Prior knowledge:
Blueprint: E1 6-11, E2 19-22, E3 36-41, E4 44-53, E5 70-71, H1 80-92, H2 97-104, E6 122-128, H3 141-152, E7 156-158, H4 159-165, H5 169-178, E8 182-188, H6 207-222, E9 226-232, H7 238-251, E10 255-259, H8 266-277, E11 281-284, H9 290-302, E12 307-310, E13 322-328, H10 345-356, E14 359-364, H11 369-376, E15 381-385, E16 396-401, H12 402-405, H13 421-432, E17 436-440, E18 449-452, E19 469-471, E20 476-478, E21 485-487, E22 499-502, H14 506-516, E23 522-525, H15 533-544, E24 550-553, E25 566-571, H16 585-597, E26 608-613, H17 619-625, H18 629-643, E27 650-658, H19 661-678, E28 687-699, E29 702-711, H20 714-727, E30 735-741
Parallel strand pairs: 9-14, 9-15, 10-12, 10-13, 11-12, 13-14, 16-26, 17-24, 17-25, 23-24, 25-26
Antiparallel strand pairs: 1-2, 1-4, 3-4, 3-5, 6-7, 6-8, 18-22, 19-20, 20-21, 27-29, 27-30, 28-29
Helix pairs in contact: 1-2, 1-10, 3-5, 6-7, 16-17, 19-20
Amino acid sequence: MSPSNLASVAVGRPVRGEFTYVVPEGLSGRLSPGQRILVPFGRSMSLGFFLGPATPPPEAESVKLKPIMKVLEDSPSLPPDLIALLRFAAEHYRYPLGEVIKSALPPGLTKTEMEKEAKPDVQEFAVALVTEAPAILRRAPAQSAALAYLLAVGGRAPLEEVAHAIPGARETLRKLVERGLVRIDEEVIAPGVKEGLGQGRPAQLTPEQDAAVKELHTAIDTGGFQPFLLHGVTGSGKTEVYLRAVERALSHGKGSLVLVPEIALTPQLVGRFRSRFGADVAVLHSALKDRERLFHWQALRKGTVRIAVGVRSAVFAPVENLGLVVVDEEHDPSFKQEDKLRYQARDLAVVRAKQAGAVVVLGSATPSLETLENTRRGRYRKLELKNRVDDRPMPTISLVDLRQERPREPLAQEEAPILSAPLLDAMAETIAKGQQVILFLNRRGHSTFLICEVCGTSVKCSECDVCLTYHRSQNRVVCHYCGVAHPLPDHCRECTGPLLKMGVGTERVEAEVAERIPQARVARLDRDSATSAERLTEMLASFARREIDVLVGTQMVAKGHDFPGVTLVCVVMADTSLAIPDFRAAERTFHLLTQVAGRAGRGKDPGRVLVQTYNPEADPVKRMLVHDFDGFAQRELERRKVLAWPPYTRMAAVRLEGESAEQTASVARQLGDFLARQMPPASWGVRLLGPAVAPISRIRGRTRWQLLLKAPTHAALAPLLARLEMKLVDIPSAVRVTIDVDPAAML
């Protein structure tokens, strides 16, 4: 059988490998790599992806190959460069290729149905065509009222607004349209953008910005893969450098891909990009409506839009003729996907740029130690922005030692206060000046755990090995791992003793600020309050318009935001992330503290930061106080090298979950024995740690174990992981085993 009659297909199912199908005569010449197709698989039909011609398999004579049933699109969803990236991701992260491809597609392209042209969301506006109501409307009071409303608000208003103000206005406006007194306009809604979040083009760059832009322009003009680290302090104007680089790429007819770590950052960044490039910007993140995501994906694939801005999944955006890739806040752990395809978007962005022959810029005020080490080894070129725009000073940082300044005055709700006197005084002074405050605490809820005053038993989740968090607004205790929620218990279930609310969350901080400083307008920004992309964007816009004095939040307030009115940032508890059993705990603490401190003093008024801590001698805290990233990084890299942790080693975590604790432990030991027998020669430097019970031993009722493989290079790990994958076929289905290459968290 001729290879031209055979097709290599990746099936959108959790199965490894590529499959060979027959190309029917009716489809001959109609297939292109990357097209979505319909194929029989097992006893049903499945979504498939045509990868190219296949060579006849050895068993072709004895096995009847099945035919492709249908082509689901005229042009491929996936261009060749994306297929190459997805093949790399499947191999590197040990995940089925068909599932990798499926995860890269937007909603609407992951089903076994023909592709439909997506339409953007539109908003209807009623526009008055006259300046006063004509006499003909004297006998039509409803029409007269609708027209009068329009004229009163300036002659133009959203249709929904008029309908809300005047019952039955939709039908009334239709009659006014028929009379020629009103017209209805439609405008495409730009997803994720609100007014007031954009900024104009600065008249002049700082000398450091200018030097960085010139280097990037030269690289883009020259062409080819060139990786850069843009190390700029907070407020130094990294975004403007990105914008100038995108302009240069566009001038060469090349597309750009810009990644941000959180949906919270997308509206502000999109506002900046749209103010510069208009409609030539596509937005990609999961909070958009399915239709919007498909619309933007299709616009990029057709080449009608050349700039993609989005979160980690946007690394798979079909940007045509890619010339520039930007990863903003590249250090952020949100770039690592923690389920299914466990990819690191920053690393894939570098791979994609290399495959496309594009320039890649990794930007951060606190670069990850992996990126910093790549720079030190000469793999990346370093561009530095050491000073803020307009010579604004870095914020002054002061420490509040809670061992000395611990607040003791009881509040009305009879709970121990959280905010020390220095914090309260600084907040009151700032608000009195008409300036704004950010309070940062990376813990949601009101109290992070409940404990019995008599026997000391804590209230834990019945499904997970974690304490329940008390949410006062709901009067419930909630598990932040599995989502289980219960009414607040009124006594200990072990001894019926009274329960004490311990630990601190953002909800409790918000309540204390409202009580201590009643004149302040307070809002809270965390996953509980920002329940949708629209709500999140509106809260950020409201804070930008200075309708809020104090914003209390988790890490959502720490990253990338630019609020000129903020002159005071308070870190409520700097110690929350230091005690986590993870070798990256110190690095992440330094990153978070530095990022949130950087929100202060970005306008004309200088900023200051107050940090409450019980551990003033902790290295991340001490170094952050004097903006000493280089000193922190040097000491942390020395520690990592001695202990053989990244960036001096590559890792893969093997994680097990099962309902039966005994069976899960048994399988973990079996895999441990198997890996120990398969280990390469000692000279390869591969090490096996475990098996051991995971730090959080149970989640959603399932017992958790893990093993850890470490090696000097990924190439040394790859053969061992391949043999492990083959072994997993024999593992009982009741125990789920996942391989996490380059794990970001040890929990």
